[in-house]
Amino acid sequence: MTLDAIDKKLLTFLQQDCKQTNKELSSKLNLSVTAVYERIKKLEREGIIKQYVSVVNKEKIGLKFVVFCQIKLAQHTKEYLTKFESEVKKLEEVLECFHVSGEYDYLLKVIVGDMDQFRNFMVTKLTTIQHIGSTQSSFSISEVKNTTAINIR
Amino acid sequence: MTLDAIDKKLLTFLQQDCKQTNKELSSKLNLSVTAVYERIKKLEREGIIKQYVSVVNKEKIGLKFVVFCQIKLAQHTKEYLTKFESEVKKLEEVLECFHVSGEYDYLLKVIVGDMDQFRNFMVTKLTTIQHIGSTQSSFSISEVKNTTAINIR
DNA sequence: TGCTTTATAGAAAAATTTTCAGCAATGACT
DNA sequence: AGTCATTGCTGAAAATTTTTCTATAAAGCA
């Protein structure tokens, strides 16, 4: 499927606020309500729109501490990688985990309430996973930019 | 505001799918439709729910390349930091930018279509920002976990 | 040309959100 | 203890939105 200019605008709007009514969208896009409706349904069917989510303000629920953990495995066997990945997926503190190139194997984004909780996370959860070689953590000092909205090019 | 068990469940559901109807939510939570409605409105008023967004499948729109860039500034004056941050915010390829502790000053999550576009991003956009000391990039080999949903504890 | 598909519009139907009135429980204050 | 205000809930009604349906025009194609 190829996106035309209207689809791109529509996706941009929906990435900002997916609760806008089709009427609002229709006037922004100079289309009828039904046309907007059909376009959105198509984007959903094609899997271009993956899901609709509420974004929660993490600070407001006491999660003020963002940490990036870089992790090196002891060995790079398929078994070790798979095991590590399945364990990390289960950790609620880990919002993102990427297998990456470079000196370290994995980059994790971890969210906790404070340093104490982070220590607890490291000691009782992360480093109890087998075959971890070494870790290196960077603490977020400030969030400069953090968006879910992709610029459709 | 303190969240009770129902609020926490509600937030969990809404972070998975914010387009569920209040009727669906009311039956999952054993509440009336109006009670669900009022709770959601309160969470919005309090700013606990920040926004409602559509999540776009980046692969489907040709953005298959995720890169993490670590950046060191030449000097750490307030002026340099502020300038860098305001420039980086403007770059559409940058979805996340955190000022972090450790060897590097900033960690960026960059999304592009391919290596060529990444080279172009580095050469014509990122490294043209003044006062950058050095950069170090890690490419994503695979996405193990990547969620917007926070576990409400 | 004639046929099929695709995108659109407007109206009607179905479903959902939002408002409203009423009720019970809670806590503050006299 | 009694009164009052607040909070959260329910069910019904009103308002709005989504979804379906019918029809039409434009585009692609044999």
UniProtKB/TrEMBL annotation, chains A, B:
CDD domains: HTH_ARSR (cd00090). It comes from the Bacteria. One of its GO terms (molecular function) is sequence-specific DNA binding. InterPro entries: ArsR-like_HTH (IPR011991), AsnC-type_HTH_dom (IPR000485), Dimeric_a/b-barrel (IPR011008), Tscrpt_reg_AsnC-like (IPR019888), Tscrpt_reg_AsnC/Lrp_C (IPR019887), Tscrpt_reg_HTH_AsnC-type_CS (IPR019885), WH-like_DNA-bd_sf (IPR036388), WH_DNA-bd_sf (IPR036390). GO terms for cellular component: cytosol. Keywords: DNA-binding, Transcription, Transcription regulation. Residues 3-64 form the HTH asnC-type domain. The keyword Transport does not apply. One of its GO terms (biological process) is regulation of DNA-templated transcription. It holds the Pfam family HTH_24. The keyword Transcription applies. PANTHER family: LEUCINE-RESPONSIVE REGULATORY PROTEIN, TRANSCRIPTIONAL REGULATOR AZLB. This is Lrp/AsnC family transcriptional regulator, leucine-responsive regulatory protein.
